[in-house]
Amino acid sequence: MPAPVQRRLIFAHIDEPGYTPDLACYRRHGGYEVMKRAFARPPAELIDEVKKSGLRGRGGAGFSCGLKWTLVDRKSGKPIYLVVNADESEPGTFKDRYIIHQDPHQLIEGAMITCWANNVQQAYIYIRGEFPHGARILEKAIAEARAANLVGKNILGTAYSCDLFVHRGAGAYICGEETGLIESLEGKRPYPRIKPPYFPAVLGLYQCPTIVNNVETLCHVKHIADLGGDAYARIGTPNNTGTRIYCVSGHVQRPGYYEFECGKITMGQLLHEVCGGPLPGRKFKAVIPGGSSAKVLRFGEKFNIKQKDGSMSELGVEDLPLDFDTLAAAGTMGGSGGIIVMDDSVNMVEALANLNAFYAHESCGQCTPCREGSLWMKKISARMVHGGARPQDGELLKNVADQIAGRTICAFGEACAWPTQSFVQKFGDEFAGYSAAKKEPPAESVPLI
Ligand SMILES: Cc1cc2nc3c(=O)[nH]c(=O)nc-3n(C[C@H](O)[C@H](O)[C@H](O)COP(=O)(O)O)c2cc1C
Ligand code: SF4
User: Fold this and answer.
1) What is the pLDDT of residues 67-102, one digit of tens each?
2) Which of 41, 237, 269, 427 would be a feasible disulfide site paired with 263, CB 3.0-4.6 Å?
3) Distance from the CA of 56 to the center of ligand 1, in angstroms?
4) pLDDT of 198-235, one tens digit each?
5) Residue ranges of domains in the chain
């Protein structure tokens, strides 16, 4: 593959000297012109463009955006809502916050085009409670847009009215799960709902059809409306179209946000050429490619990946193109685009104990396997790092995780089980050797029970 060059759609202006998050600056850079043109087109045409674009959601599951919009129940006679998921609670993910801070009008424009396309008259941006600064920026930006007749009544002099509100969450990981988010938006505890029947497209906010999309996804909608679905689909790779923001954190020389065509950069290129490689004297050991819930990859492991021509190739971690399908074929996921890098200084048992503490804290508690299992995984891994490891602990941890995945109301069950399953499977040597190992004081980041 040739040396990677960033392709910036979402970050086209972000980080440009003098680029500010206010309406005047956004308009000087062509802001809201795409929306003006979109409002002159029939809504169904815009839905078609999004379908043609092949856009997949950037919030975690990579679900087709066009298909999601098509599934909306338009015959019920109930209002249709748009909810922008700005919860961004997946550890290792920090792109939505950056978009909100640097370019809030891009999100508002994408959201308003989505509202027009789907006949939405009321939309909400649900922002995580720990992002008060982002919430204030959004509130200011919406007020500016409303004053300029870009949001609210008779937008741009048309007969179409649509209001947009910011709703601040109280701060819980599970508020990012779309049905938990909807419950929270309704003023209740964020207990995820059972699907079926509570598919948001049919029974969402206030039991009405609701579209829930991620911040980055909705920014892409603006670019699809601008370029056209076919042209957008030529960016990236088949079935993995458009650009993607990768948030790289952990043990690399240049962590940060990088936007590339989806699938046109490999993990090795990103970590070595873009992020400057490992820290001096260190080697890469493991990487979590799509937020902390994605299964960990161990440097040195090999995967059999089907190529475009149908042949199979054996690829190492560094050879994997960063797209949804390749990462799924490697047994993990592209998820939220949060890439967490660990070098050979990391004790994998401690790293897992840290993750398990997070998941046990964030389980909403509705399902017994998740509520009890996440707590057990936390207790076992914390006991291990605090000097009480037993030879069978790795196996025990995996056993608990296996009893959670696939047995819960929402995908948090998988999110909390996958780290344990993959850490134990891939670093079994460290888990097995732990009870015999010399007990070093654990890292401060590992909480005691
Ligand atoms: C436990 C859990 C946490 C989630 N957190 C987020 C989040 O913080 N932000 C987000 O956009 N999606 C999150 N999701 C995914 C949402 O449920 C939903 O699929 C997404 O917002 C849909 O948007 P998209 O199709 O544009 O990706 C989470 C899912 C689960 C199971
Ligand atoms: S899987 Fe966990 S977070 Fe999801 S509903 Fe059940 S208990 Fe709550």
Assistant:
1) 999 999 999 999 999 999 999 999 999 999 999 999
2) 237
3) 12
4) 999 999 999 999 999 999 999 999 999 999 999 999 99
5) 23-234, 242-343, 348-434
**Best of 356, 410, 414, 418 for a ligand 2 pocket test (most atoms within 8 Å of beta carbon):** 410
Q: Can you tell me which atom of ligand 2 is nearest the CA of 371? A: 7
- pTM of the predicted model, to two decimals? 0.96
The CATH code for residues 348-434 is 1.20.1440.230
Mutate to test the pocket of ligand 2, among 179, 363, 372 (most ligand atoms within 8 A of CB): 363
Nearest CA to ligand 1 atom 18: 178
Distance in Å, CA 65 to ligand 1 centroid: 13
Ligand minimally distant from the alpha carbon of residue 369: 2
SS (H, E, C) the chain: CCCCCCCCCCCCCCCCCCCCCCHHHHHHCCCCHHHHHHHCCCHHHHHHHHHHHCCECCCCCCCEHHHHHHCCCCCCCCCCEEEEEECCCCCCCCHHHHHHHHCHHHHHHHHHHHHHHCCCCEEEEEECCCCHHHHHHHHHHHHHHHHCCCCECCHHHCCCCEEEEEEECCCCHHHHCHHHHHHHHCCCCCCCCCCCCCCCCCCCHHHCCEEEEEHHHHHHHHHHHHHCHHHHHCCEECCEECEEEEEEEECCCCCEEEEEECCCCEHHHHHHHHCCCCCCCCCEEEEECCCCCCCCEECCCEEEEECCCCCEEEEEHHHCECCHHHHHHCCCCCCCCEEEEEECCCCHHHHHHHHHHHHHHHCCCCCHHHHHHHHHHHHHHHHHHHHHCCCCHHHHHHHHHHHHCCCCCCCHHHHHHHHHHHHHHHCHHHHHHHCCCCCCCCCCCCCCC
Which protein residues touch ligand 1 with a CB less than 6 Å away?
57-61, 63, 85, 87-90, 174, 176-178, 212-214, 217, 410-412, 415
Tell me the CATH number of domain 242-343, given options 3.10.20.600, 3.10.310.70, 3.40.190.290, 3.40.1060.10. 3.10.20.600
Q: Which atom of ligand 2 is nearest to the CA of 362?
A: 3
Architecture of the domain defined by 23-234: 3-Layer(aba) Sandwich (3.40)
